[in-house]
Amino acid sequence: MAQRPLEGKIVLDLTTALAGPYATLLLAGLGARVIKIENPERGGDAARNNSPYVTRDGLSVRRTSDEDMSVSMLARGRNKESITLDLKNPAGREVFFDLVAHADIVVENYSAGVTTRLGIDHAAVAAVNPAVVYTSISGFGSQGGPGTGKAMDTIIQALSGVMMTAGGPGDPPVRFGLPIGDLLAPLFAVIGTLSAVIQVGQTGRGQHVDVSMLGALTSLVAAEPFDAFEMIGLATRTGDMVPRLAPFGIFAAADGHFAICGPTDPFAHGVLTAIGRADLITDPRFEKRDGRVHHADELHAMIAQWAADQPVAKVIAELEQHGAPCAEVRAPHAAVRDPLVRQRGEVVPLRHPSYDDIVELWGSGLPITMSDSDTGLDRPAPALGAHNHEVLAGLLGYDSARIAALSEGKVL
Fold first, then answer.
1. For the segment 207-232, what is each residue's pLDDT rounded down to a tens digit?
2. How far apart (Å, rounded) are the C-alpha atoms in residues 166 and 177?
3. Is this model's pTM higher than 0.85 or not?
4. Could you tell me what percentage of the chain is helix, strand and coil, using 3-state DSSP and rounding each to the nearest 5?
């Protein structure tokens, strides 16, 4: 097996919920040793208490034993080690800084100001190990944000403007179905973290990587020129169709829906041929893109009428035969079972650390394949504190008496 790109790097994971754990999941999939530090008093990562749970009898809305594990943790905890540590306790912070001395990266997603109050902020970590890359993922950035300063994905979607990009004119706001703010910020965080790690190799100095959920999502909203659309009278909310790219949108067939993306002349001409209107290829209304945009409603109506009484499979076959980009609209259940994404390891089975495979569950893999490196998420999520002894004795060299004393003092 080829070496993984981040093999030998140690990540201290102070994250909880989704945004932070997804960032450290990616680092783990790239080969870093991720040591997840969890609060023993609160039952660890909040995701451990997300229903549903995998139990000995299958999926359950409620936990039935201490060994049961939430599907959220099964997905987000893979390829990580778990230790428990009370960071409010001076003895817990001492252990933490012993770990910092061995670490390359620290990732946290506390609310702004919490790490400073705990005495584990970037300045404190850099004083112990100046080469550490310290990555913070928060709702609004390290300076804090409006109101309570607390940020959940829906709050970020509301503030970013993304809720007013879907739907049609006059529709209420549309919440994106995926927690897009929670999933986007960690991608930028990993990019920043790995960039800083490269720079450590050049300078020997780590730095603070500060990523906000609001900034990450709003930056993508700004990637589309909505202001320019408004200035020239183009609608910014167009529902299932995108008239400025016509033919472009989601259409109903007899037994489902399909998408067409035909903004270029060859693609659009393929659509016209597929629907039996090749005669319109030389029509000034549809020959070139500007004409199609001006007559988008008419063009989309023709496609809708053609497809309405045909099965999706036949519609797709006709469009593909004439080179028109198209796809069936699939439900998540079908999409995550696509043989192609499973073959590439982009979606993989989720396994419980101790139970047999009693329920079929699929989770995100690492959607990065590399020619000379191995990547992947191939180890199940750990039980809370499962690696206390392995990390404290194996990495830090603590003896059994010291570990027992930390446990008896409720530091672990």
1. 999 999 999 999 999 999 999 998 99
2. 11
3. yes
4. 40, 15, 45
